[in-house]
Amino acid sequence: MVTRFSEARLPTPNGEFRVVVYRTGQEVGAGGTALGVGLEEHVAMVLGDVTGAPVLTRVHSSCFTGEVLGSQRCDCRAQLDSALERIGRESRGVLVYMVQEGRGIGLGNKVRAYQLQDEGHDTVDANLALGFEADLRSYDLAAGILRDLGVSSVRLMTNNPAKLSGLEQAGVKVDAQESHWVDASEHSAAYLAVKKTKLGHLI
User: Fold this and answer.
1) pLDDT per residue over 122-141, tens digit each?
2) Strand partners, 59
3) Is the whole-model pTM more than 0.70?
4) Could you list the residue range(s) of the whole structural domain that residue 109 is in?
5) Most buried one in 1, 42, 94, 165, CB count within 10 A?
6) Number of domains comprising the chain
């Protein structure tokens, strides 16, 4: 399902990672990537020897608006930074960066959902109003990437029970779930509340 395409060292403020790019080998569908064009590519940020168990791991979905443009409507950039910092402190771990914008609906539809949120919908209802499920993400590719890296079990940084069960169903052994909340802003407080009340995110 996924093929290792390229890799190189990547010095960062949290240590010298190895960045590994994976390709699915097929053209993406509508909304499949942040830009919706080209081959689908996903990334693993690897620090230290991650073969074996248990490996501190974050499976993180892309957020162009938050991570690139600095949107405060979500906590995605803060979660990304926090995960890389934690891996850096332990000098061992993996962050799998999946291009699944807007919980899998794509950037354009995500911005359409923003408009619906401004009209009074919450983040779940906005996706449903556009004809999508609340969360369309899949974790099969992330599981394939972890297997390719030799990771046999993980300590998973997540609050999302669907991510936990999705990875386990895809064959990833989860030794522990580690809370990954970050501080809310005035713009993201409602978004985080819906994660807890409607999506069952753990505290």
Assistant:
1) 878 887 888 877 676 778 88
2) 96
3) yes
4) 3-197
5) 94
6) 1
